[in-house]
Design goal:
Elements lengths: L3 H15 L11 H12 L3 H5 L10 H17 L3 H23 L36 H6 L2 H22 L3 H22 L2
Length: about 200
């Protein structure tokens, strides 16, 4: 599985990209990035509430529900003109979790498009250069301080850190350069892991 760091960086990157829409440009407060990081990790609540991992919270239906909730909360809090885009961004941020889990090459299958399509997709080997998957980690603290998780965080930080920084870059050339660094690191690490 992808780590909390990988999910958070991917979610914050998606929010930073969504914020480029003119209607969302004023929502620059760091709390929005923190909210995106939390939203990107929401699907793993399944493990904390006793649901099967990569089950109902790793679906398009769950992401739609969370996006709808985000839009509703935004509208109630006075962000009516921004609510639809906040909801769409929320949907993509939450759904990115299941997409990243599919790139890990291990663990349970994911019904990415449920409830609209019930087929479960198997994780793709080599998508992310992570080498193992474990359900037996000794609870949340065991998961966070597991040696495999720390290694995964280093790999994901090397890949998604530059990609996230690229979404925040003010200069186009810097953003493109950072995106190329992240993509190159991802490609080289995936290539090395496949050997």
């Amino acid at each position: 599985m992808s780590s909390i760091l990988g999910h958070s960086l991917a979610g914050m990157s998606l929010w930073a990209l969504a914020r480029r829409a003119p209607v969302l440009r004023d929502l620059e407060h760091k709390a929005w990035l923190a909210g995106a990081a939390i939203a990107a990790c929401l699907p793993d609540l399944d493990a904390l509430v006793g649901l099967p991992h990569r089950g109902p919270t790793h679906t398009l239906g769950f992401a739609l529900g969370m996006g709808g909730l985000a839009a509703l909360i935004a509208a109630v809090r006075g962000l009516r003109k921004e609510a639809a885009l906040i909801g769409l961004a929320g949907l993509l941020v939450v759904w990115s979790h299941a997409a990243l889990d599919l790139l890990t090459g291990g663990g349970p299958d994911v019904a990415l498009f449920r409830p609209f399509w019930n087929r479960e997709l198997s994780p793709i080997a080599g998508g992310l250069p992570l080498t193992s998957y474990s359900n037996d980690v000794g609870g949340l603290l065991g998961l966070l301080f597991n040696l495999w998780t720390l290694q995964a965080m280093l790999v994901e930080g090397a890949i998604f850190g530059p990609l996230f920084a690229a979404t925040l870059a003010r200069r186009r050339r810097v953003g493109i350069g950072l995106a190329l660094v992240g993509a190159t690191v991802w490609f080289l690490m995936a290539l090395a892991a496949s050997r």
